[in-house]
Amino acid sequence: MKKSNSKIWGGRFSISTDQIMEEFNSSIQFDKILYIEDIEGSIAHSEMLSKQNIISKNDLGLIKSGLKQIKSEISNNEFNFSVKLEDIHMNIENRLIEIIGDAGKKLHTARSRNDQVATDIKLWLRKKIDQIELNLKSLQQILIEKSEAYYDLLMPGYTHLQVGQPVTFGHHLLAYVEMLGRDRGRLTDCRKRLNELPLGSAALAGTSYPIDRHFVAQKLNFSKPTENSMDAVSDRDFAIEFMSASSLISIHLSRLAEELIIWSSDSFNFVKLPESYTTGSSIMPQKRNPDAAELIRAKPGRIFGNLFSLMTVLKGLPMTYGKDMQEDKEPLFDTAKTIESCIITMEGMIKSLEPNPDKMMEALQNGYPTATDLADYLVTELKIPFRDAHHFTGQVVLLAEKKKSGLEKLTIEEIQTIIPKAKMNLLDVLKIESSVSKRTSYGGTAPDNVLQAIKKAKERFLKD
Ligand code: ARG
């Protein structure tokens, strides 16, 4: 038989592909990282083909040993990837035929690259999701440990980046444990939804071979085969879901990163970032720059970009597979890699983060954070309506400001010039410690609450 185009699919072509087209069309440069999943999928597929008597046991044996050899060739950097063979699927298939001959030509029976690539990406992403979830869990663990060490360390709690009310450092850190918990939930959801096997949908319409998709699903640990062959080969929702879950993770990490940057700035000096996660300036010798935190603050840029890039590729795409979909990989791979490195880096930074209690207290005292407590006291003890209480409290703050002192440094006589009925017990209310320890409402910052919350967080997030 005469062949005029040497490609695997070259039968109906009379001239060869232009080199520019070859480069442009190929994905091997980036999809080679799917080789393990591609081989895993091919093994399960060929086992099914043999079980269904579509290929012989002998062929199955050859295919499996050939694929095993290819896996080790790629792992050992001994594999010769070729742009001419376009992608990882055809590079492997071609090599298989080189190694085992005709039996290798039977592997692609009853499948297409369309269902194959969807399966490979799902297998790959499933592993990544599991890994990222573990990374998040271990970041949560570090945050919980820090919260435990500083469950009663007082610091200003902010709204509008203005001192609002005192909180504990432990309470503040636990806020991030909650965010990361929701992030993990989103990943789990995404994993559950993606866990349906596309393989066996073939090009788009299913196949006339007597295949057993349930068998392959089971072999590859999918919960079931997909229900609709057309949907199966064109669905990349799972990648978008993952990238949007990752966007939220990156948002959360960037907020924490920004706080670390603010807290470690000279003006705040609330925390010392570990030296191992900061850099020096090439010109200003005194500097210690929070580069790691700044990068984590910046990474949502590319993570959102990746999400938007894939959403844009898919919008308006007619059923079913279009080559457009090859553009799914680079953004997806980049997002997984980026988010993983952000989480790991954040963990490293938090692990050796050292708070500076004196500076936190100084900022608290300068911020009149017990003003709300004073207003509440006037309402409950002196039966002053809240709006008036708010007004009187404002005047007391003004007085402290004039004296350049914290609220708790004011004497009762001074306060009585504004609130004549004020009694000695009012002074307790102005103490920062007492303000915090009274915030005992569910989810509040009182140190005893924080201890309870830590215990619960361990149960909720760190079990198994
Ligand atoms: N390299 C392709 C991709 O990543 C594989 C699927 C190709 N299918 C096709 N019909 N050309 O999307």
CATH class of the largest domain: Mainly Alpha
Question: How are the strands of the largest sheet arranged?
Answer: 1-2
- Rg (C-alpha, Å): 31 Å
The residue fraction in helices comes out at 55-70%
Q: Are there runs of 5+ residues with pLDDT below 50, and where?
A: none
In this entry the ligands are: arginine
What structural class results from the helix and strand content?
A: mainly alpha
- Overall domain count: 3
Number of β-strand runs: 6
Q: How far from one another are the termini?
A: 60 Å
CATH architecture of the largest domain: Up-down Bundle
SSE succession = HHHHHHEEHEHEHHEHHHEHHHHHHH
Name of the CATH superfamily of the largest domain: Fumarase/aspartase (Central domain)
Residue fraction in strands = under 5%
| Average pLDDT | 95
Shape: elongated
Number of helices: 20
Assign the CATH topology of the largest domain: Fumarase C, Chain A, domain 2
What about the largest sheet?
2 strands, antiparallel
